[in-house]
Structure formats: structure tokens, C-alpha cells
Records
---
Amino acid sequence: MIRWALICGVGLSALCGADVAGARDAPAATAGELAELKAALADLRARQQELDGQLAHVADRIAAIQGEASVPEAMPHRARPDNVAAAPSAPVRMVAAPSSASALDVSGDLRLRYESNFGGEARGRDRSSVRARLRAEYRLSPKVRVGAQLVTGDPDDPNSVDVTLSSFADDFQVSLDRVYAAAQLGDVTIVGGKFALPFARTDMVWDGDVSPQGAAISWRRKADADGAFGAHALFFPIDEDVGGADSRMLGGQVFARQSFGEAIRLDASLGYYDYRLRALASADAGDIRGNRFGGGRYLSDFDLVDAIVGLTYAPASRWPVTLRGNYVVNRGAPADLDTGYAVQLVAGTQAAPGDIRVSYGYSRVEQDAVFAAFSHDNTVISTGYVQHDLGLDYRLPHGLALNLSYYRFRPIDAAGPNPWLNRLRLAALFSF
């Protein structure tokens, strides 16, 4: 509308100028003709002033609307690209409010699984289970976000969200597994609440379902185009006691990643987790499983040194290969109960429909080598075991994946003619 008003104004001005020039070049006009031309010129000027007034009104209205939509620099806003500088003379940047669709990220998954347990002296057992998770994260600004996760399962079990299909079709329990706020300050991320584990991990030390609480800070820096390094720190209140000492964990981890050419990548991390376990009022049988426990306390301290090294060969194909090793030692346990290690070989990927991934792992973990409350729950033995595991994953379209897992395991000190136990799992995973 503004453009057309300008065009009309310029055209009218040109027309007025053309009329005056024509009158100058033409032969002398009669008095009647001259009066008629003057009247036409006055009419055109009046119409031009009217259009100028309308143009000024429209411009004022646009400025008012922009003023209402503007936000001060200090208020939350959607970021512009880092390579676009703000105008140096502008005290206030005019930006559109972020759309809710772009600021909110919702995801989740549903797993249906059938499991068969057999071997050893115990009676075989089959069962079906369900796991459901729903996550949401909202970006308040380019630097601040909040999030939460709802899960099925027993809220008193920190390392499992599966529900066994049983109990005469009773309804499932659903609980708030994560709720957090995070801030991104350059290379540093700070998060508080109950959130995803920040450390590099394997199931031997940290189960994938554990969501610690407290506060964490992470720092990451790119070394060059092919590498990165950084560190994580975690303050983890485990159990609070009104009348005595609390239970908590202070942990840290440094990590590095380096690529060599296009096909080889090396990952390494070293962590130290210092547990102080004084208050245990909230601990149940699942929390104290596996470790030596008596007289209302753990018989070992837990000061874990956790090292992980992974080497990946990824040629230009669908079959990258990763060899990963994890070694842990508990400096607070007796020498014959303090060590665990795991080795895993993985081939393939799950990046696109049709992809296949196969894996084999071997692990040996002494009884107090890890803190069992937060270690794996893949089998019925959380510590003090020897284990082989096989995995096969197949990716289908539309967020569907199939998994086949087999575990063969026994206690380290098992005796008898048939000490090995077996667990076979078949699962369908739906993700969105």
C-alpha cells in the first residue's frame, strides 16, 4: 500500500510538472484557458496533499505496531545467526516473538518386550513387559531451556522403567523421571533438577535409565575440525536426613575425542565418583542389591575410578565397527572385591531404515567394584558376575526398530554342574 501511494505521489508530481512545462512552451493562451489550467493545478496539489497525509498515517501505524512487537536486548528472544551483527546504533532490536512450535521439542518411545529366563537350578520364567517414555523440552531463549520426562515403572526403582504385564491388568504407574532447567553459556552448560546423566557410560557402572538429581556442569571445547575435549562435574544428593549426615556423590569426568582421517575415531574418558553414604532411610532392597551390606550400612566405601576407551572404524558404508573397553576400580573396597571390566564389539548402525547392528560383550565385575543401586539391571545379578551378551538390532521405517538380546551369566564364585543362567529378550521399539 505504501509503495502504491509513493508511486501515485510521484506520478502526480510529474504530471503537475509536465503541465507547467507544457504551458511554458505552448503559444500564449487566452485568459479563459489560463484560468482553467490554474484551477486544474490547484486541484492536483490538493489531491497530492491528501495522499501525503494518508502516507504519513500509514507510516505512523507501522511504527506503532513494530514498537509493540519489539523486545529489549536483555529479554529472552530467539537468536540470530552468530555471523550476523546487530546494527551498532540500534538501542533496541526488533525481533518477532518465537513461535511455540519451534521452541517446544516433544519426543518419546514405547517398547514392547518378551523375555525368557532359563538354565541353572532355578525354574524357568517367561514374562512380557512394557516401557513408555514421554519427553518435552521448551527453549525459553537461545541460552535457557526447561524440560521434563514422564516414564512408566516403579518410581522407587532408579534403574528400571519397565512394567511387567501382570497383576490382573492393574493400571501402570507413571512418574516424573526428569524435571530440569539448563543454561548454555558459551562452551559451558549448567543444569539443575533431575536430568540425564552427563557422563560417558556403559551399563557396567551406570544403567541407561538412571537420572541423577542435583546439579551438573559440563564444558566442551573443539580442539580442531577433527577433535574435541572437555569435562563434566556432578553434585548428586542421594538421600537427605533431617537429623544426621546426608548421602551424596561428587563426581567428575574428563573426556577427549579425536578423528584420524575420515574413517578412524578414538574416544576416551576418565571419571572419579566419590560416594558418601550416611543416610539410607529411603533405601530399599532394590537399592542395596548386590553390594555387601550389614548392620544398616554398606561394608565398603565407594570411590570409583572409571576409564572408558573406544576405537571406531567407519568406512563409507553401513558397517562401522567399534571396539570399546571399560575398566573400573573401587578404591574403597577390599582388594579382592574392587575391580570390574567390560569389553564390547559393535558392528553396524541404526541410522536409517534397513540398517543392521550386531554386538558382543564380555564383562567380569567383582562384588563391590560398582555401586549396585545405579548399575545395570539387564540380568538378576547386579555385581559379582561373569557375563556374555549378544545383540542384534534391525531398523524399520516410521520409527520402528526390532531388538534381539541374549545374556549368559553366572556368579563369579558359582559352583555346581550347571552354574550358567540365560536370558533371551525380543523387543519392538517405537520412537517419535
---
Amino acid sequence: MHSYNTCRGSLRRLFGTDGVRGVVNVDLTPELALSLSLAIGTYFKPGSRVLVGYDTRAGNTFLVPVVMGGLVSTGIKVFDGGLAPTPAIQYYVRRAGFDGGVIITASHNPPEYSGIKVVMADGIEAPREAEEEIEEIMRESRFRRVPWRELSHRVTRVEDIVEKYVNGVLELVDSERIRRYSFRVAVDPANSVGALSTPELLRRLGVKVVTLNGDLSPTPSRNPEPSPENITDLTTYVRSSGVDLGVAHDGDADRAIFVADSGAVVPGDSSAVLLCQHIVENRGEREPPRVVTAVSSSTIVERVLSRYGIEVVWTRVGSIVISRTMQSLGAVAGFEENGGFMYPRHQYVRDGAMAVALMLELLSYSGRRLSELLNNLPRRYVIKRRVYAPRELLPRVYEELRRRFPSTRVVDVDGVKIVGEDFWILVRPSGTEPLIRVFIEGVSEEVAGGLFKEVLEVFKEVYGCEVRTA
């Protein structure tokens, strides 16, 4: 986490790509949480109605009351939404007319982390300018203090967040069509709030549900990041049990990573391409004629959607960037390659349960298994690496990449993405760590490996030495 530096009296970048996160009681302390909640409360107008929700992380036992107390002291009317998925809280903020929300979660980070993020009245995470204003209030300790007579408002409990959210998803899909197929689905919610929503949604869709790691616990049985190495229990179960589908959530259930009937983990951008195609082809939703995604996603989406006249808009990495771009330009869908899918008819944010419902609807329309649908997508081999090198020379790296690949398309909204006929290369600075990220996709392992070798040669030429990778 980029932390508040009280020794120097300055505020380095506090908000990351998705809120403020850190190891509880080390980076994210009660003192920091209180100062941050006072700044958030001061940012909102006195008397604003703010919904607070959270996941099961151990640090939330002290973070939740501290955050609520800080908000109340600034004259905010606080509503306690309890344990709920992030997209459920976002949905409720917008639908119930709240002035904003605060979600206490660290999403996919390891269990020792937690975080605090701000949601605006439209249910979307706060834009960077709002975060900067909150940071400035915190840096200057410019907190609003209301008289004691105005503190009589008690925190109000809200009980129906998950119910309203599940109902909202059900309203948008063809439930009867899905029920006719009697699907069997295995769900791994990482012992967190996804266990409150996705199994219930599936049962109401007539699905036979098996839940792994489904008890709510501050010490999850697996790392909350739904990466292939962390969801082996799910992949093994899917492969051996014959269920139609597996789905793994991160800690706050705004992402959904699917496991095909074969037991293969489906990359987030591959499942997103299928869902985008389903929305356009089966649901007939082609206006506004665009899909929004970050530069780290596969270019396969362009190839698949071009036949429908759908434009792909590339953005910087970060769900908030995708959400706000979708909101301003209009889009039929948006996504990240990490399993975050956004369906704007529901809401402009990552939504794990909505993605699951759309995937089942797709399978019911196609009458085919997920493994078969994946076989119809162009095959690609992906390499993702971290490069540990100073960022100052990155412009020279970009220049050399352009020189070495002259007959390619360049997307430069976040680093440089070189797009060829059968490959693409992305080099960009990390938004959360002091390192450089390299993404490569090729038609074969040999092509991708050769491209990665050439990228490393570029780094060596620019930096004058070998660089460390991981």
C-alpha cells in the first residue's frame, strides 16, 4: 500500500488502482483507518447517507467499527450493510438512492490484507479526482467536526442487500430457459461473501449447486486470488464429478473465473469474449456498438466481435477506468482479463454473480459445453512476467519496440501494446508495485517464447545489463 507518511507530514499516493489496501495492523492500522474515514466523511456533505459493507477478512473486526465511527463523527448517516459482495453493495447504493458507499475489502489480496474503497452515488468506485480530494483533506487534517447534538443518529442496519442484488440479476436473464437444462455447478467463493449470493442465485435458477470453501471464515482455505494455482480443489472436483461448470470468486466476489467441464481454468478474457458474443448474438444487444477493456486483454475480442460491427475500446488498466469509459461512451459490455466482467444493463462495475448467470444463459442458448465453445476461439499462448528495472528508461524501451516491430498497430494508452497479425506485446509500468509488467500472446508457445526473448533483448540493450524477471 502507498501509505500516509506522518513523519514527513506528506501524503504519497494513498489510493491504488482500487481503493486503499495494506496488511492489517501493519500498513492498514486503526489510526490510518480513522483518519481516512474522517476524510471520506468530510468529503461527503453533512447528512449524506452512506452505506458501509464488508467481507470476512480478519482485520475487518476492528476496521468496520473504526470506519463507521469516523463517518458518524463527521455528520454522515451511516447504514450498516453487513457482509455482502462488493457488486451487491454497489447495486444497492445506486438502486436505493444512497449518496455513496464505503466497502471494506481487499478483493483478491492475501488474507492478511484488507482495504477501504469509496463508491459514489452511481455505484461506481470514486474517480481519481475524488480520491485526490480525500487525500488532501487527510493530509491537512481538515476534518469536519459536528456538534454533539448532531451525533444522535444511530447506525442503521440494512438487511436485504444480497436479496435485492440476486433479484436484480434474475430479472435480466432468461431464467426459464436456464432452468430447463438442470445445470450442475460447483462454486468456490474462497470462504467469503460470494457464498452469500452465487449459490442462492444458482438455486433460484434451478441449478444443482456444490459449494467448496463455502463457510464464511477470516482464515480462508485458499488464497482469495482465483488463479489456477489457487483453485486446484475446484478444478479437481469439476474434472472428477462431471458437473457442467465451475466458478471461483475472489474475496469480494466481483470477479468470476470459470472452470470448464474438462477441468481447464478459463482465462478471464476468453470467458469475457464468449459472454460479449452471447450478449451481441443471442441477446441481440448491439447498441451502443462497442466493448470496453484494458490493454492487458487479448486482441481475440476484436477478431470475434468485428463480424458484428462492434468496436473494441482500449483503456488503461484498472476497473474504474473501464467503468467510467463505459459510462461516458456507452457500451454493451466491458471486462478485465482477470475475470472481472461488466454488464451495464445491470451496473457499470465488475460483477461475479451477473457473469455466472450470463454464462449459464449462454450455455442454454448454445446447447453445448463450455469446453466446446472455447475450442471455437482462436488458440493463443500467453506469457505474463514481471520485470524488475527502473521505470525511468521505459520511454526508450517503448521507442525500441516500435522500431523493431514497424509494421504493427500500436496502442499507447497505458505503456505500449504492439499488435501484429498473430501476436501482441504489452509493456507497461505496474500501477500497484515498483516494477514493469510484460504481457505476450502468440499463436504458439514457440512464437510467444521468441517474442519474450526479443523483449528481454530490448531491456538489455536499453538498460545495459540483464534484468531480473519473475
